[in-house]
UniProtKB/TrEMBL annotation:
Belongs to the fatty acyl-CoA reductase family. It holds the Pfam family NAD_binding_4. The keyword NADP applies. It comes from Tagetes erecta. One of its GO terms (biological process) is suberin biosynthetic process. InterPro entries: FAR, FAR_NAD-bd, NAD(P)-bd_dom_sf. It catalyses: a long-chain fatty acyl-CoA + 2 NADPH + 2 H(+) = a long-chain primary fatty alcohol + 2 NADP(+) + CoA. This is Fatty acyl-CoA reductase. It comes from the Eukaryota.
């Protein structure tokens, strides 16, 4: 299908987009408004208490971003008038029936106008609370499907999932649907509705205990998500609940075209609306920024493994092409993977080499206006080497600090507690990402470690020694 045909499809179409303030959705909205100004209307579902708040969020979190500079240059002072004509921010929430839209007249209008529904709303935290993740990623998808089914002119439901619903399979991952109620590891007893009941029962037990705090409830729900995911063969709560969402859609879809899009790791834009637009520090960006700032000392993972990344604008292009291609095509769900590992595989070792080469020539300038000198990262290619490294560089110095702190009547409790918490966080992160560290499939991901914790440990030990005349030589790299 050519570009003219794709743009022609968008002409005079009305599209509902959930998760509209998310990274990918913003790029999607900007692209449509830029390339097809004759689109009829974009309904953008935004979590807000009312339409005024939804409009404020849209302006603050979408329009005011640099992402919209091309549109600002094109329309100038007329941009707001153009947006008023083409965009309607809607206060709502996919965890509720009718997407939480309270304005009955607006709902009726949406049901009469909408041609395409794009579901981009999700929680992407690997260790999200199980109740939150199931409500958004699983039953939220069901609510979006039910809403789309009420749209008189519906031509397509496009659901954004993730390639990592495939779990830990080795080799090439095919674009296959997940059979309803079938666990990845073939464990019996996966019942999506019962998962909801299990959560409700657990929450009742937690609230029944007078000693329960909000923090303890959150921790319990996070642990429960990981436990349930692991039981049925998925590595974390995010991919588990996204897989369940796919199952629900595949099971309930009837007379409506459904396409499930599974992108891999989404990175900054490649070309449009300009190269390199990113929002926040995401996945791979954390590695690059942390390394450039001198906060990374080692990398945990197989340097020969492939990291599958795809620029956000390429994902958006795929979304638009899919809409034009599959609208009004009645069939069972169609699934697309959008990634790079098959046609353009990128190995971790090249990422590490490129990072070292770049920051050696273009060092990060710190807050003191001094260049940060980076060194090549130490690669830990097994869990055993990681455990040795952590023991020598982190746990041993921490034990020394603990002993000194006890000797000095706990004068350094705050320092010790802070460092202990950070190290525990790193270890929890390892446990969370462990299934991906040495994966050999085409969708493997990464984990990395820093960090400044080691420097803080060393500095703390030196400070304690100096203040108390203790002959202590801190551990060195």
């Amino acid at each position: 299908m050519g570009l003219d045909s794709i743009l022609g499809f968008l002409d005079n179409k009305t599209i509902l987009i959930t998760g509209a303030t998310g990274f990918l959705a913003k790029i999607f909205v900007e692209k449509i408004l830029r390339v097809q100004p004759n689109v009829k209307r974009l309904y953008l579902l935004v979590r807000a208490k009312d339409s005024k708040s939804a409009l404020q969020r849209f302006n603050a979190e979408v329009v005011e971003k640099d992402l919209f500079n091309s549109l600002k240059e094109k329309y100038g002072r007329n941009l707001q008038a153009f947006l008023l004509e083409k965009v309607t921010p809607v206060a709502g929430d996919i965890t509720y029936e009718n997407l939480g839209v309270k304005d009955s007249s607006l709902i009726e209008k949406m049901w009469g106008d909408i041609d395409v529904v794009v579901n981009g709303a999700a929680s992407t935290k690997f260790d999200e609370r199980y109740d939150v993740a199931l409500a958004l990623n699983t039953f939220g998808a069901k609510n979006v499907l039910n809403f789309a089914a009420k749209c008189a002119k519906i031509k397509l439901l496009l659901h954004i999932s993730t390639a990592y619903v495939a779990g830990e399979k080795p080799g090439l991952i095919l674009e296959s649907p997940h059979p309803f109620g079938k666990a990845l590891n073939c464990t019996h007893g996966l019942d999506i509705n019962k998962e909801k009941d299990i959560i409700e029962e657990k929450l009742k037990q937690l609230h029944y205990d007078d000693k329960t705090t909000d923090k303890s409830i959150t921790l319990a729900m996070k642990d429960m998500g990981i436990e349930r995911a692991n039981k049925f063969g998925w590595p974390n709560t995010y991919v588990f609940t996204k897989a369940l969402g796919e199952m629900i859609l595949g099971n309930l879809i009837r007379n409506m075209p459904l396409v499930i899009l599974r992108p891999t790791i989404i990175t900054s834009t490649y070309k449009e609306p300009f190269p390199g637009w990113i929002e926040g520090i995401r996945t791979v960006d954390s590695l690059v920024v942390g390394y450039g700032k001198g906060k990374l000392s080692c990398f945990l993972g197989d340097p020969e493994s492939v990291i599958d990344m795809i620029p956000a604008d390429m994902v958006v292009n795929a979304m638009i092409a899919i809409m034009a291609t599959h609208a009004n095509q009645l069939s069972h769900e169609i699934i697309y993977h959008v990634g790079s590992s098959v046609t353009n595989p990128l190995k971790y070792k090249l990422v590490l080499q490129t990072g070292y080469s770049y920051f050696s020539r273009h060092p990060w300038i710190n807050k003191d206006s001094k260049p940060v000198i980076v060194s090549e990262l130490k690669v830990l290619n097994s869990m055993a080497s990681f455990e040795r490294y952590i023991a020598l560089h982190y746990l041993l110095p921490l034990q020394v600090l603990h002993a000194i702190n006890s000797t000095l009547c706990h004068a350094f409790n705050e320092t010790y507690t802070n460092l202990d918490r950070k190290i525990r966080f790193v270890l929890q992160l390892v446990e969370l990402y462990k299934p991906y560290l040495f994966s050999k499939n085409s969708l493997s991901t990464f984990i990395f470690y820093s960090f400044e914790i080691y420097g803080q440990l060393r500095d703390a030990l030196v400070a304690v020694a100096c203040q108390n005349s203790i002959p202590l030589r801190p551990t060195t790299d």
